[in-house]
Write a structure and sequence with these properties.
The chain contains 6 helices and 4 strands; from the N terminus they run αααβααβββα. It is mainly alpha-helical. The chain has one domain. α3 packs across α5 and α4 packs across α5.
């Protein structure tokens, strides 16, 4: 039980640190003021499902993904072939990606880019979903 409490404490410290970084960016860039508020609109199960999708469909890469911004990521999530995706805002996706440990670039812009790439398993599922939709 103590180990679980410690991980919760570490998680809360990380979130607090992210809040501080966001505040600094809001002052510097004037963006992201409502991202954490929007993320808090999600219930526990929705947050877990979004986090599971990120962990299952994405993997960290050494370089920033210039092709897919938070806009494309959230569209992929909401249109996931499993049918379990749901609508999330750009801000919700930003916070979920930060919480999952990804680093962002272009923070002064509305759409951020992260050091992410699609996992092989996700690409296979995506291809299979497209093939099934083409047959219909």
């Amino acid at each position: 039980m103590i180990g679980a409490e410690m991980s919760d404490k570490k998680r809360m410290m990380r979130i607090t640190k992210l809040h501080e970084l966001y505040k600094q960016n809001d002052i510097k860039y004037g963006r992201g003021k409502s991202d954490f508020i929007e993320y808090d609109w999600l219930n526990v199960n929705e947050k877990r499902h979004l986090n599971d999708w990120i962990n299952g469909c994405l993997m960290k890469s050494k370089q920033q993904n210039e092709a897919d911004s938070t806009e494309e990521l959230r569209e992929r999530f909401s249109g996931d072939p499993s049918g379990l995706g749901f609508y999330v805002t750009n801000g919700m996706m930003k916070v979920a990606m930060l919480n999952a440990g990804y680093s962002a670039s272009y923070k002064w812009q509305h759409n951020w880019h992260f050091n992410s790439a699609y996992s092989v398993d996700y690409l296979k599922r995506l291809k299979k979903g497209r093939l099934l939709n083409e047959d219909e």
